[in-house]
Structures are given as structure tokens and as C-alpha cells.
Write a structure and sequence with these properties.
GO terms for molecular function: ligase activity. Keywords: Ligase. This is Phenylacetate--CoA ligase family protein. With about 450 residues, the protein is an alpha/beta fold. It folds into two domains: about 270 residues, Rossmann fold; about 90 residues, 2-Layer Sandwich (GMP Synthetase, Chain A, domain 3). Helix content is about 35%, strand content about 25%. It has an eleven-stranded mixed β-sheet, sandwiched between helices. A hairpin with a 6-residue loop joins strand 16 and strand 17.
Amino acid sequence: MDANHPFLKFSERLLSQQPFKIIKGLASACIAYPIAERMEKRNVRDKVQELSSFYQIPYLQRKKSVAKRLADIVSFAGRNVPYYRDLFSSNKFDPEKIYNDVRYLQDIPYLTKDIIREQGHRLLSSPLQETRHHVCKTGGSTGLSCFIYYDQQGADYSSAVTLYCRESIGKKKYLSELHFACRFPDATIPEWPSREDFKCFAMNRSNIFFDRIDEQGLEEIWKTLKLRKPFLAHAHPSTIYALACYIENKYGSDKTFSVFESSGELLQPYMREAIEKTLRCSVINRYGLAEIGVIAYELNNNSTDLYVLDSEGFLENRLVDANNEIVVTGYHNKLMPLIRYATGDLATIDERVDGIYLSDIVGRIHDVVKLGGIEYPTHHIQDMLDHRVGGIQEFQIDVRTDMPVLRIVLESNADQTTVHTRLEKFFPGCFDIHFVAHDSFVLVGERAKFRHVVTK
């Protein structure tokens, strides 16, 4: 049957009420998730237990284990990754020295997005066709985008970290969660049941598909939230902040979920305050990136600083224009190990008695663009360009003129005419389209940063 069949609508309403909601949650956690894990040939639950055991060890006692993980991944990269093999050889760097002192890591040059784009498959430890892998495109909010490849172990650890952190703040698997996702204008009504339906059931997750954050779009989001009443909602903070402002203006305040998990962009203090006050929920911040996964999470009830998950990677600061940039080395993704990767994000790394913390985070800003009288978040536009237009390596919207200018860098195998036709299909008359090279992008701010939207 179609996914919008009246019976399914009735079932959704029924399952949002107790006791059916908790029965569904228990069935998801105890039956569907283990089945899905086995069907997909994944191993996530064991890694959640591994993480739980790891963090029961006091920080000072596990530092030796963390140092070994760092030395292991650097040594592995030096043996198996062409880029690092050549780099270590030219620099006469011996990875084995890190086993004795982690400070030798500083002898390795920083890795940047420019190097990742330039080196391509030379950063892989084995050919993609020989390895089960997952591809992830970086968001481009702290620099031009590039592709990151995860092996299965790396992907499983990334999933396990999210589950572990959520369970640590009280979100057990039997409690429902809701994820905000892009709605595509050409999407057809899917058949039910589908693979995605079972995946959502196994995760005890539902999706809100949206494409606008004006009054019409926000009212639709609010009605969906009122119906489903998830325990946790996961979205960009700018989206939930816009929702909070809308609810405050129209209803005063109201509650539909217990926890808002912020990710994907910078959570500003004023956003947190408005969301907590108007939507009457706890706000949990996290720091993750496509290149590594979630690496820090707000786990300390007494502080909004983020607790660094030292089981997953090693963090450093490098000084850039008097600012502390986050540099990270991941432990688990052996297909594409990233050693001393300069993220472009800024934060202070602080070692305390119970672990390492991130504070004063700056970076990963998304914008809102008005096209044809409708306000669109840039992460929605990026999803449209990636999944509906295709062939686009990077984009930038310049709104300093009457007609916004859309600058496009094409993938090497893309056809300009095809891309132009698709852009006009999905964004008719919205842009003056320019096909350019990377050096035509406008860099903004005192650090000359790339931004998807140029406003001044």
C-alpha cells in the first residue's frame, strides 16, 4: 500500500499513544534492532558495550590505552596508505616513536581538505572495489567539500558512539527519536513497507521531511511533532531555533519532546536559551564531522562544554591567526585514516581530571536564503544539489545582487548543460547561474573563510 494510506495514518496516531508507544519501543530495541544488525552484517551493540566498559575506567588510567591507539593508527597508515608511506619516507619519520611519546605526532604535517581532494585514492589503504565501504561528503561549511570513505568497522564505531552518548543522557533505544531530513520536490509516495521503514522501526526513529522554514513550513513541522511526541529530536540548531521563535510568537511556549540534540552547525548560546525556554526541553550539544564522526558530546550535567570521546580519536590545537583550530586523528577508520586532520573549526581543548573537554567552539555556520519568497536553509539547498541535480562539487550563493548568483564548480565528469537544466527544473528563475573554478569563490571574514552564502 502507499505510505500515506489512511490505515497507516491511523496506526501512526495509535502508536504515538501509551501503552502502544512503549510496546513499539521495546519491540524495536529487543527484536527489530538485533534482526536489522544481523541482516546488514553489522556489529554495533557489542561496540556500545565496549564503549561503556571503556568509560568506566578513570581517565588517567586509560591514557596509556589511548596513546597506543594513536600509535597503532599512525603505524598502520605508514605501512598501508600510499600518501603517508611517501610522506613519512620523505620526512624520515618513524611511526614507532609515537609508542614511546605521543608528542612525536607533531612531526607529521597537518592534513587538510585541499590535500584530501588532491591525493584522492592515495589516502586509501586498499582499493574501494575490494572493500565494503561507505562514502560521506563533507558539508563545506568550514571549507570546500571532499569525499570521505569509511570501512565497515569505522562506520560501526561511528554508529555505536551515537548510541552510547544518547544512552548516557537517558535516551534508551526503546525511547523514540525523530530526525529532520530534506524533502525533495519530486519525491513520489513510496510503497509500504520498505527497507527504510524497517530501518526506522529498528532505530525507533521517524523522520520529518521539510523544505522550508517560513510560517507554513514551521506550522507543518509543529503539527508533526505534536502528533509523534518523540523523546529526542535531532536537527540543526538553526532549524529548531526558527521553530522556537515561531512557537513563542504564536503559542507562547509548548512541549513536544524531552531532548533536543543539536548537530551539524554551531549552537549559539542565544539559540540554546530560546529553545530551552520556549520548547521546554533539554538541549544537548555535540561535535562531529563527516571526516571522523561524533568526537565530543555534552555529557556533563554541570557544564555545557563537550566531553571529548578519547576512545575515538586524538585532538590537538594548532594556532591559526591567534585562534585555536581543532586538529583530529581518528582511530577506527582504517580504509581512510586521517592523521592530524585540520578541521577548520575553532575550539579550546582543555584537559581536566576526568577527561578532555572542548569549549568556545566556533565554526560550521549554515545560512538561510530567500528564493521566490520562501526561506530555505542552505543545508536543504545542498541536499537538493547533491541528490537531485548531481554533478556539483561545490556551490556558493551570492545574494548581494537583485538576482542571487549561484556559482557552481562541476565534477570532472559532469555535463554543464545537464546540470543547468536540472537547476532550472528545481529552482526555476531563482538564480543567475555561473559555472566557475574554485578560485572564483568569494572568501569572507577576517580569516578569508569559504561560506555557502555571501551577504556582504
